[in-house]
Design brief:
The protein is mainly beta. It has five helices and 28 strands. A hairpin with an 8-residue loop joins strand 9 and strand 10. It has a single domain, classed as Methylamine Dehydrogenase, Chain H (7 Propeller). The strands form seven sheets. A four-stranded antiparallel sheet has the order 3-2-1-28, with no helix packed on it.
């Protein structure tokens, strides 16, 4: 069988298997995980033992390499709040995001510039992950550039990209791999029926048989110095202004929304009975929700404004709380985290703010809501310069009223690079919460 026919057949199998998942939607509603894990990934519902931090190498700092850094987070551990392991992957490829496989045994991590994807074994010894595989031909085999979001499907990993090999612009798509890192298929972002072809994040709601994608910008922009970018009128036009609701079963666009200003992270609320997702826009500082109306049609609503858009606070990472009531929003330029009450998803309200540092990017709340973690780096050429270039991991205790610092790891002082994405893990994976969106074993893909 030819390669083309093999991929077509595998794509058909993917769609049929996802159909099997869609038919099991009578399972109980999935509750939100720690931050943005796929609903098909088991959860850390109690005290996390470790946090993995994916860091950007810095020229002249340590060995200058991108790294996976492990920090001990259990207060009962003698190493609480300390770095206990690190893996250098060689070179600086603009390390960015990570994602667990559906069994939480492997962690995929990508680099936006080199296009390498690194796979780590985080199950054999969660305290000391092992680098077990590297995908080095992502761009060559998919035509995509900038592997950004890593999102688990049953037996599969979806890799949402930011750019393409032809012109390094914003036209892009996503690739589907087996858990054994075999490429299955590639889908492009829509450019018809109002689509603009941009992509950024990817988030599934299996109970509604849909997934949501957002749009950002291409390699030409995200690898440019931010000062130069802001002064370039043509470059500033090259940002996404659409969000797309897809049919999960068929992997085809279902509805395209005009969401101006570069919509970034896509997050579903998994509170019981909820049927909505949320994103924020980097350039226009808005909160948008996507909700079904009484007829079942997906609609977009502008749910609020974050800070003062004229000051370009630059909303970056967001995270829902477990019950879907609250939303953490980080604004990069002022180093502030903001808690929004989303009890009315169409009309969110900011109820709490706290300055975390000179800059802040990623936010990861624990499932139980008692701890909130923050890191600082956005992109190598977008981070603050000089003394304002904070690079840390901070954990805060949250009592429902105020954030109180628990511990801090200074990544610059330890010569670990720029701290970007985070993922939690437990020492004993048997303690992970079983999947709420349960799937029988016959619906899972057999890895080759």
């Amino acid at each position: 069988m030819s390669v083309k026919k093999s991929i077509t057949a595998l794509k058909r199998v993917t769609q049929l298997t996802v159909l099997g998942v869609a038919l099991s939607l009578s399972a109980p509603a999935v509750y939100a995980d720690e931050t943005s894990c796929s609903p098909f990934t088991p959860l850390v519902k109690g005290q996390e033992d470790f946090v993995y931090v994916w860091t950007l190498g810095v020229k002249g700092m340590g060995n200058e390499s991108d790294k996976l850094v492990t920090v001990s987070t259990n207060p009962d551990s003698p190493d609480y709040g300390k770095v206990i392991a690190q893996i250098s992957v060689g070179g600086r490829g603009e390390a960015h995001h990570m994602g667990f496989t559906d069994d939480r045994k492997h962690l995929w991590a990508g680099a936006l510039d080199s296009n390498h994807i690194y796979i780590f074994d985080v199950a054999t010894n969660p305290a000391k992950p092992r680098w077990v595989k590297t995908i080095r031909n992502f761009a060559q085999t998919t035509g995509l550039v900038g592997p950004h979001t890593f999102y688990a499907m049953p037996g599969r990993m979806v890799v949402q990209a930011l750019s393409n090999t032809k012109d390094h612009g914003g036209r892009t798509g996503f690739a589907v791999y087996s858990n054994d890192a075999e490429l299955i298929t590639t889908e492009m972002m829509p450019t018809t029926d109002g689509g603009d072809g941009y992509g950024y994040d990817f988030a599934i709601n299996p109970n509604k048989n849909v997934f949501l994608t957002t749009g950002f910008t291409g390699w030409n922009n995200y690898m440019m110095d931010i000062g130069k970018l802001i002064k370039d009128p043509e470059a500033m036009k090259q940002f996404g202004n659409r969000a797309v609701m897809w049919n999960y079963k068929s992997m085809k666009p279902q509805k395209i929304f005009e969401t101006p200003g570069a919509p970034l992270e896509a997050r579903w609320s998994h509170g019981e009975g909820h049927n909505w997702a949320v994103t924020t826009t980097a350039l226009t500082s808005k909160v948008y929700t996507y909700m079904q109306d009484d007829s079942g049609e997906w609609q977009q609503y502008e749910a609020g404004t974050i800070g003062d858009p004229s000051k370009i606070p630059l909303p970056v990472d967001i995270a829902m709380t477990g019950n879907g009531k609250d939303l953490w929003i980080n604004t990069f330029m002022d180093g502030t985290t903001r808690l929004w009450d989303m009890s009315d998803p169409k009309n969110g309200k900011e109820v709490y703010t706290k300055k975390i540092g000179n800059q802040v990017n990623m936010v990861s709340p624990s499932y139980d809501g008692k701890r909130v973690y923050f890191t600082t780096s956005l992109l190598g050429n977008w981070d603050m310069k000089g003394e304002k270039n904070d690079q840390f991991l901070k954990m805060y205790h949250w009592d429902g009223k105020d954030l109180k610092l628990g511990f801090e790891v200074d990544f610059e002082k330890l010569k670990l690079g720029r701290a970007h994405h985070m993922k939690f893990q437990m020492r004993d994976l048997k303690m992970l919460e079983p999947l709420k969106a349960s799937m029988s074993s016959k619906l899972k893909f057999a890895n080759k």
